[in-house]
């Protein structure tokens, strides 16, 4: 039976853990090369303006004109899916699993909040990508993340959206074990490419989350927390990784986790 998890805990060095994850990514990605080639050909036909960039370029025909029929089908599917998924402003219904959660006040508060979240421009743009992924690749993947769109000014904080947000994962940026019985039980690796500025913000957010978590634990047991320790640890990680000129998100996250645990 195919393993349900990718075991990396027995690797002592954080660098070796990142290497193990990278090698597993390459292995899983190589096992789907035929699928990637087929999807690339489909996308070439969808966006083709002539036959010179498609597999028909090998044919000895002088006429290179192409009719974008696949693009028309894709646009029609996108319109139909969008209209079906979001037919009206309130597209969700709260179904409580207990009596206390089924009061009108709680039900209205939850539904109205989720409607407000779904009306955010970021949600609509991400869902557009997800729908197109389903049409182009036959699969679509999303995850949830907490975002803070507020901006700090000199004398105040500019208002912005704060809360959960959907983030689309490109089917080309996620791999799984293709020999697994289904997607749910397979180990999955997501690839992300970020800049050094985004890396710094990521580590700072990890530090803030760790600080708040530590304060909450300390308050519950009645002790004080020396929060700057975590910040200094994250700064060391940032300097050591950025100094090598290579930004490896998997390595950074594993290294940060290992050093915080130490």
Mean of the pLDDT scores? 75
Strand order of the largest sheet: 1-4
Shape: extended
Question: Distance N terminus to C terminus?
Answer: 35 Å
By DSSP (H or I, 4+ residues per run), the number of helices equals 8
* Low-confidence parts: 221-262
Helix content: 40-55%
What string, H for helix and E for strand, traces the elements in order? Answer: HHHHHEEEEEEHHH
Tell how many strands the DSSP assignment holds.
6
What does this structure look like?
- By secondary structure, this protein is mostly helical.
- The protein has a domain at about 190-260.
- The chain is built from eight helices and six strands, in the order αααααββββββααα.
- A hairpin with a 4-residue loop joins strand 2 (about 150) and strand 3 (about 155-160).
- Helix 1 packs antiparallel against helix 8 (about 250-260).
- The two termini are about 35 Å apart.
């Amino acid at each position: 039976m195919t393993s349900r998890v990718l075991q990396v805990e027995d690797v002592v060095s954080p660098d070796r853990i990142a290497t193990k994850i990278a090698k597993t990514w390459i292995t899983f990605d190589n096992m789907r090369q035929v699928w990637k080639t087929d999807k690339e050909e489909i996308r070439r036909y969808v966006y083709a303006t002539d036959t010179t960039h498609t597999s028909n370029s090998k044919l000895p025909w002088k006429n290179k004109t192409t009719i974008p029929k696949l693009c028309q089908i894709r646009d029609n599917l996108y319109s139909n899916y969008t209209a079906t998924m979001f037919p009206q402003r309130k597209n969700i219904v709260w179904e409580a699993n207990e009596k206390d959660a089924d009061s009108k006040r709680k039900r209205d508060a939850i539904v109205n909040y989720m409607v407000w979240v779904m009306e955010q421009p970021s949600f609509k743009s991400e869902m557009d990508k997800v729908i197109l992924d389903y049409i182009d690749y036959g699969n679509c993947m999303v995850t949830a993340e907490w975002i803070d769109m507020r901006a700090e000014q000199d004398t105040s904080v500019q208002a912005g959206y704060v809360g959960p947000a959907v983030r689309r994962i490109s089917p080309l940026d996620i791999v799984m074990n293709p020999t697994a019985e289904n997607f749910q039980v397979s180990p999955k690796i997501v690839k992300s490419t970020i800049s050094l500025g985004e890396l710094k913000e990521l580590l700072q957010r990890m530090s803030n989350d760790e600080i708040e978590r530590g304060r909450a634990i300390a308050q519950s047991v009645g002790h004080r927390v020396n929060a700057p320790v975590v910040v200094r640890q994250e700064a060391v990680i940032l300097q050591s990784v950025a100094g090598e000129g290579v930004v490896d998100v998997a390595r950074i996250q594993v290294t940060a986790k290992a050093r915080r645990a130490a």
